[in-house]
């Protein structure tokens, strides 16, 4: 299973770095489906992996100056995401303390399926949608809180919803949205990790899983950033759509698995 966890973290991080979805949205449902570790353990490992990938990817983009982070918008979004992440983690812990592990997994899979489906429909129709270019700081904070809440509650560290929001409400192109999404994920994951450690909610996991998945995140971040610079925006769009279709199928499988 060490090899499986490393490969999943690496490949998910490659795709996450290319598309800006973090990779957790792929890792979390895939590793949940293995049934090897608890839902909370996989959420923690996924978050750590996404953090390592985001550090590498954002650093690479800023160093190469391929696509810049739009700080005027993304900083308040990231701040809101950090706040929302704290709330999402608290709700997750509350549900976890009251419900069985399978129930928690079922809820996460169902919510992720719904969010991914909405994003998938938007992506297919986005050329027909009139986008906005919001810059109001309180509004950005509010939007960031919602992004952070769902990302933290689902244990995915980001996800397709980031790209939909950045495209629809902030008129960002695919590659620009990818980099800015990863910056938001980076900030929210730092605060999420700090919160988990300070509240003593770090799940019991074997250290080798953490080492291998973090290494997969770093290597995947490097590879994904390099690929992102070389491919066209249209190719990123097609990859993103394909990934969402796969994620929805995995979510349906997990819902059946956790409900049995």
Ordered list of secondary-structure elements with their pairings:
Blueprint: H1 2-19, H2 24-34, H3 39-64, H4 71-98, H5 101-125, H6 137-154, H7 160-170, H8 174-198, H9 207-230, H10 233-259
Write a short abstract of this structure.
It contains 10 helices and no strands.
Folded structure, characterized:
The chain has 260 residues and is mainly alpha-helical. The chain has one domain (2-259). The chain is built from ten helices and no strands. The longest helix has 28 residues, at 71-98. It is globular, with a radius of gyration of 17 Å. The mean pLDDT is 92.
Count the helices. How many? Answer: 10
Instruction: Please give the largest β-sheet.
Output: none
- Shape, per Cα inertia axes: globular
Helix proportion range: over 70%
Give the end-to-end Cα distance, rounded to a whole number of Å. 23 Å
Portion in strands: under 5%
Spans of 5+ residues with little confidence (pLDDT < 50)?
none
């Amino acid at each position: 299973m060490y090899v499986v966890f490393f490969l999943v973290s690496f490949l998910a991080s490659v795709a996450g770095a290319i598309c800006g979805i973090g990779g957790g949205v792929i890792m979390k449902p895939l590793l949940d489906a293995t049934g090897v570790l608890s839902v909370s353990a996989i959420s923690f490992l996924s978050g750590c992996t996404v953090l390592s990938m985001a550090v590498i990817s954002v650093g690479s983009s800023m160093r190469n100056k391929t696509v810049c982070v739009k700080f005027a918008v993304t900083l308040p979004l990231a701040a809101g995401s950090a706040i929302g992440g704290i709330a999402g983690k608290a709700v997750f812990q509350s549900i976890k303390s009251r419900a069985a592990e399978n129930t928690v997994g079922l809820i996460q899979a169902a919510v992720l399926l719904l969010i991914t489906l909405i994003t998938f429909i938007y992506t297919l129709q986005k050329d027909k949608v009139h986008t906005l270019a919001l810059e109001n700081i309180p509004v950005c904070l509010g939007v960031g809180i919602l992004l952070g809440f769902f990302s933290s509650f689902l244990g995915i560290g980001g996800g397709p919803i980031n790209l939909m929001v950045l495209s629809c409400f902030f008129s960002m192109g695919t590659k620009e949205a990818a980099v800015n999404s990863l910056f938001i994920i980076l900030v929210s994951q730092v605060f999420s990790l700090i919160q988990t450690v300070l509240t003593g909610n770090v799940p019991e996991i074997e250290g080798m899983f953490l080492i291998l998945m973090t290494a997969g995140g770093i290597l995947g971040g490097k590879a994904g950033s390099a690929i992102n610079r070389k491919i066209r925006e249209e190719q990123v769009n097609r990859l993103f759509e394909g990934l969402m279709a796969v994620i929805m199928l995995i979510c349906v499988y997990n819902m059946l698995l956790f409900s049995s």
